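User: Can you help me understand a structure? I only have the sequence.
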Amino acid sequence: MKVKARNENELLNFLEREGRPPGQYLIEKFNNHDVILLAEEHMIKENLQFVHGIIPELYKAGVYNLGMEFGASEDQQLLDSLVTAEEYDERLARKIMFNYNVAWPYVEYMDVYRHAWMLNKSLPEGARKFRILNISYQFDWSEFKGERSPENMKKVFHKGGHEKYRAQIIEQEVLVKNEKILVLTGTNHAFTHYKEPVFNYLAEDYCRFENGNMGNLLYEKYQERIYSVVIHQYFRNRINKEPRLLSPGNGLVEELLCKNGNSPLGFDLKETPLGEIADSSYYSMGYTDFTLQNIFDGYIFLKPINQLKGCTVDSKFLEDRNWKNVVDQFPDPDWHGRPDSISDYWKFVTRNAMLNY
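Assistant: Let's start by predicting it. Here is the structure, written out as tokens:
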């Protein structure tokens, strides 16, 4: 059924009436949901700063867990010790992040640990501690050569599919214990009811729909206990279309938020006027009458996209690290190669943190 277009005043009135400050919005969602998947475009400083700031509010609301895509479960005990220690250990924080991804020297991600430690340090003796939960495992890129194949990727993802692994960690550490968690993860990992389109020449209309992302797996089993919220970001355009990136809702979301004074805001998409905004990005491929509520349940706006900044590179990240290990474990070498020198490494991670919009 085709969605009836809403007029601008109706949409602005909805934002004024139903919108909440982003932190308050997320906290209120925990009244009816146990797992909130917070979908981020990686390496955006403001996204991480938002997460830093909400940690004390999560704790006050009885949410004692924050999940991190960028972290290996093998280091969970080390991470638990870091955020509950008497003194904060920056070197240990770097080690934990390095062990998961040798090419992720970004201060704001490691500062999630620091802010959890700051909260725990402020708690009275005997109080329950806030926990950062690593939901991934240590991949092994050391033997990867050539193209991605089942044989190659079984060596890299040696503990099985990472989407299933991450879903199982959240299930075991949170859901079966009847606890709650905010999970910071990349956008596609946070899909729940939405099935991602992939070109397939054997499929009807040449489009196959995937439902194996972490959020899909959790939602299939736990339904309304899982809720997905996207942080304002560019969406990819359809294949072979220009421009390469599109503002969500064909630009209408940011236009409305601009007319609302660009105030940071959280609001629902599901079954709301804002959710009925049409979107023609890559996410709409294979669908008809596609709208924003088809992708996510909720939305957080922090700033206009052109005001966002990239993360800060930690110049001490490689201290005490073996260079051969850095090269061997450099992720996704088929996409960008392995660094030939330390200088190449720093150029890559610095360029990676620049928002090339």
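Now, to help you interpret it: The longest helix spans residues 45-60. The longest strand covers residues 65-72. Let me know which part you'd like to focus on.
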